[in-house]
Design goal:
The chain contains 3 helices and no strands. It is mainly alpha-helical and 64 residues long. The two termini are 37 Å apart.
Length: 64
C-alpha cells in the first residue's frame, strides 16, 4: 500500500475529513499540472527531456 494511502487508512480522523484531504490534494495536483502546461505552451518552460539533457551536458562538462 502506498505510504499516503496507509497514512489515510490508519488515521484517527473521521472518513469525511480524510475524503476532503484527498479531494484537496487532487485539486492541487490538477492546478499544478495546468500551471505547468500553460508555462510550457507560453514558452516559460521546457520539456522535461530537453531540460535534463542540458543539465547532463553541464555536469559532464564540469559546469555543475
Amino acid at each position: 500500500m502506498p505510504p499516503k494511502a496507509k497514512q489515510i487508512v490508519e488515521s484517527e480522523k473521521p472518513l469525511t475529513l480524510r475524503y476532503d484531504e484527498i479531494v484537496d490534494d487532487k485539486a492541487e495536483l490538477y492546478h499544478l499540472l495546468d500551471e505547468g502546461r500553460a508555462a510550457a505552451q507560453s514558452g516559460r518552460a521546457r520539456p522535461y527531456g530537453e531540460a535534463f539533457d542540458e543539465i547532463e551536458r553541464k555536469i559532464i562538462s564540469g559546469q555543475l
